[in-house]
Amino acid sequence: MTATLAIDAGQTSVKVRLQGAGRTADWSAPGVRTDGPLLPQLAAVVDRAVADGHAFERLALGVSGLESADTEAAALLARHGGLRSVHIAHDSVTAFLGALGDGRGAVVASGTGVVTLAVGRNEVARVDGWGHLIGDAGSGFWIGRAGLDAVMRAHDGRGGPTALTGLVAADFPDIERAYLELQADPDRVRRTAGYARAVTAAAAEGDAVASAILAAAGRELALSAVAGLRRVGEAERPRVRGIGGVFTAPPLAAAFTDAVQEALPGAEVAVGETDPLDGAQALPDVAPASALAARIAVARAN
């Protein structure tokens, strides 16, 4: 069996799996920074695996924020002489493969950020995944920021009271300095996304403001799924999956399911966790005739 090193490089963490010779080993590393060059970060993960004595002939990567897949694939192949092939794709592709395999439908993957991929018979549509400044609607960052915004509105008298105030005040005793500390933090995106947990906790205790934020996030994620499916011609009884940490919040999952089924009656909707490493590992086996094949960059040794 050809040994494969599969990598899921997300903003929160990098997950790695080595499979071959009858054994499987999984481990993790810190997440990638999408505001800097990706190649050195990816190469460092592969270098670490080699330094730890792992041998592999295939490298398969799903990467957040990936823009130059062909360049990255060729560079990684050239850097590691023992490789026979490198398969690399945006993490929306590997999220789809992990949830629905090499088939049709839509997968919404929402963690710190969010991206939706819809796959039809011949077409693929990516929806959102445009980063926290101009996109990522319904993501952990979006939810966390909405929670912080609700706290400041309550503080100012622009919004109603919320239990989120107490949860946020535990981190910022002087609430009026919270924005200064967050702006100065180089890890502010992940830190802001972390407040999605506070929103989920407050909603579970019956806080109306937090519940409304989660419901709005679910509707935003549904909107992305529906838009993608319509673009690829899969709006009749499609398969839809919501994966990632935000879907563990019941109000969000319910709002997502209801909004998709309202827009597309008969849609088969499910939410839950899948292992993105399953999708990365599947990259080398995507059929050439698949609509996804064009989204996967491949470099092979001569």
Quick summary of this structure?
The chain is of the alpha/beta class and 302 residues long. It has helices spanning 38-51, 69-79, 91-100, 131-134, 140-156, 164-169, 178-184, 188-194, 196-204, 208-231, 250-263, 276-282; strands at 4-9, 13-20, 23-30, 58-63, 85-90, 105-110, 114-119, 124-127, 239-243, 268-271, 297-300.
Structural write-up:
- The structure is a single chain.
- The chain has 302 residues and is an alpha/beta fold.
- It has a domain at 4-96 and 276-300: Nucleotidyltransferase, domain 5 (2-Layer Sandwich).
- Helix content is 43%, strand content 21%.
- It contains 12 helices and 11 strands.
- It has a 6-stranded mixed beta sheet with strand order 3-2-1-4-5-11, with helices on both faces. A 5-stranded mixed beta sheet has the order 8-7-6-9-10, sandwiched between helices.
- Strand 7 (114-119) and strand 8 form a beta hairpin.
- Helix 3 (91-100) packs across helix 12 and helix 5 packs across helix 9 (196-204).
List the helices and strands and how they pair.
Blueprint (H helix, E strand, L loop, with lengths): L3 E6 L3 E8 L2 E8 L7 H14 L6 E6 L5 H11 L5 E6 H10 L4 E6 L3 E6 L4 E4 L3 H4 L5 H17 L7 H6 L8 H7 L3 H7 L1 H9 L3 H24 L7 E5 L6 H14 L4 E4 L4 H7 L14 E4 L2
Parallel strand pairs: 1-4, 4-5, 6-9, 9-10
Antiparallel strand pairs: 1-2, 2-3, 5-11, 6-7, 7-8
Helix pairs in contact: 1-2, 3-12, 5-8, 5-9, 5-10, 9-10, 10-11
